[in-house]
Amino acid sequence: MPSAAKDHYATLGVRKDATPEEIKRAYRRLARQLHPDVNPDATTQERFKEVTVAYEVLSDPEKRQIYDMGGDPLSANGGFGGANPFGAGFGNLGDIMDAFFGGGATHRGPRSRVRQGNDALIHVQIDLADAVFGANREVTIDTAVICSTCTGAGTAPGTHPDTCDVCKGRGEINQVTRSFLGQMMTSRACPQCGGVGTVIRQPCSECAGDGRVRARRTVEVAIPAGVEHGMRIRLSGEGEVGPGGGPAGDLYVEIEERKHPIFERQGPELHAAVSVPMTAAALGTTLKLETLDGPVDIEIKPGTQPGTVVPLRARGVPRLRGGGRGDLHVHLDVAVPTKLDAEQEELLRKLASLRGEEFPEGAFKADNPGFFSRIRDAFNGH
Fold first, then answer.
1. CA–CA distance from 308 to each of 276, 281, 283, 290, 374 (Å)?
2. Same structural domain for residues 126 and 247?
3. Rg of the chain's alpha carbons, rounded to an integer?
4. How does DSSP classify residue 337?
5. How far apart are CA 22 and CA 356, in angstroms?
6. DSSP calls for 116-138
7. Tens digits of per-residue pLDDT, 1-14?
8. DSSP code of 242?
9. What predicted TM-score, i.e. pTM, was given to this entire model?
10. Contact in structure between 134 and 146 (CB atoms under 8 Å)
């Protein structure tokens, strides 16, 4: 069927007296809806071809006049008629759609050679005492620092970057593409200068034009009281210096807390186990314990049972966001002697006789968690 048999106005959805701008707007709207990348089915692709043919005719004043007079402007001018409208001579369809839908680069001018640096990460090991009271540590890091020879410029002393002879300092080049809509221009970053508009002909011998070098340096880190394993401390501006001597990123210090041989930590709470002689647990006594804050006396009440927990208030770890310190929970384990001499054995037998415990009856006791179960429950907040 010749193109003239098609109602191109109806295809684009415009009136016969539509202005060129109205025709262009209608085509752009339909092209967005029917583009093969959006609707790849065969029916939609055929519809897209019809819309494109209609626009080819109605956007050209001479072809539109021939069409309005009942002729076939495409055949008369050797056009593509009902064939593929994207054949040879019309450029790359991607370039055309870029121009329509914003895919092509817009003119931005040269970009800066100076860029922000990356962040850096190091690990620091601390003891439990450091987490309780805080500490200051000096850490050694290997990062990019500004080049002292060129102070970040990247050029050899006494020289300067030259204007790029490809883009003439604009940082981008224009590319012209032919299409059925005419010539279309897009912009791309200059491949010669990378978009910065200048070229370093004589780079600094120290940094090879990067404006920065690798160096080892020492940074002091303030470790706050209450910090926990796995937390990160951020030091602003202590990371990698950027290309061209750009501003440095941040340094993150990740905390690794060593296990303590006596105290076990759970958040702000500390737990420790203390062995109490059987006689001391039965008669009661006072124990002197060495805590992280120094020696402290705890009272063992007469008849203390295995698994008893004695809390020492505010002897734990500070809460990082305020609220004071946690507690130290002392778990008491009653130690039963395994070896007795004759005199000790006689005394214990006499005690058993006085208490009527020479021949005790065995019986299971319900709901009697052992020492380790009590520690587990204490850790779980029960």
1. 11, 10, 15, 19, 8
2. yes
3. 42
4. P
5. 110
6. PPPPEEEEEEE-HHHHHH-EEEE
7. 344 457 899 989 99
8. B
9. 0.62
10. no
